[in-house]
Write a structure and sequence with these properties.
The chain is of the alpha/beta class. The chain has helices at about 20-30, 40-55, 70-85, 110-135, 160-175, 210-225, 230-245, 245-250; strands at about 10-15, 35-40, 60-65, 90-95, 140-145, 185-190, 225-230. Helix content is about 45%, strand content about 15%.
């Protein structure tokens, strides 16, 4: 469901202490939105909260420490923030990891941790968000996937791309189920946007700076499409190419 008529005024963002999450918070705050911010590092959240309130004193910002792998805590914290801010109408499932190792290389911990956080943690967040939205019959769920979800990637990126493909499938299934519902579901697939998670990626002309890249995400989220590839250039053409090109060529893009 795509909706432009309703402004989402109260937004929860997970993984908000740095990277995409922190910059989304800054940009939504500049739009006058009230924010609920979650991450493991509550000290960084408090610093971000102070920054946002200094720049935009009319908004409300609530923060909570949250490890998305503590599934009971996810439900509890989402409920607490929903109560504190008088009802969340958009929840951005953003927390994630970029760890990885070659599968079978004797270093399974990084891959298992990434899969646990990126998909099982995302599923726990989605369960908690959808329980709130179904109870009130409205809301906007945003799942932050990745362009890495479009095709399976080799070597140390394999588990990461698989975890993000699972997130995309989760969003696709919910979008189909809720296509005639007042609850919207959007899956965002960012290309390369400069954040701590990809700071080790070699320099590439495909890398967008954090502010511009997140601006494309926020603009897409505001439109509430089912699926959005961002930034649009060059990632929409790459998205189409990845779906049809043979595997021997797709490695040039990711």
């Amino acid at each position: 469901m795509t909706s432009t008529a309703k402004t989402r005024t109260t937004i929860l963002i997970t993984g908000a202490s740095s990277g995409l999450g922190a910059e989304m918070a800054r940009q939504f705050a500049a739009m006058g939105r009230d924010l609920a911010l979650c991450a493991r590092r509550v000290d960084r959240l408090e610093e971000l909260r102070a920054e946002l309130l200094a720049a935009h004193p009319s908004i409300r910002v609530a923060v909570r420490a949250l490890d998305v792998n503590d599934h009971r805590a996810v439900s509890r914290v989402f409920g607490e923030l929903d109560d504190e801010l008088g009802g969340l109408d958009r929840i951005v499932v953003n927390a994630g990891l970029g760890k990885g190792a070659v599968i079978g290389s004797g270093k399974p911990e990084a891959n298992l941790e990434t899969a646990q956080t990126n998909f099982v943690g995302a599923l726990a967040q989605t369960e908690a968000a959808m329980e709130l939205f179904r109870a009130r019959g409205a809301g906007h769920l945003v799942l932050v996937s990745s362009m890495s979800a479009v095709r399976g990637l080799p070597k140390a990126q394999t588990a990461y791309s698989a975890s993000k493909a699972a997130v995309s499938a989760l969003g696709e299934g919910l979008s189909a189920e809720l296509s005639r519902s007042p609850i919207s579901v959007t899956t965002i697939l960012p290309g390369y946007i400069r954040t701590p998670i990809n700071e080790k990626v070699a320099k590439t002309p495909l890398m967008a700076d954090t502010v511009a890249g997140v601006r494309s995400m926020v603009q897409a989220i505001e439109r509430e499409p089912r699926r959005a590839v961002v930034p649009g250039w060059p990632w929409r053409p790459i998205d189409l190419a990845l779906r049809v090109l043979p595997q021997r060529l797709t490695g040039r893009f990711l």
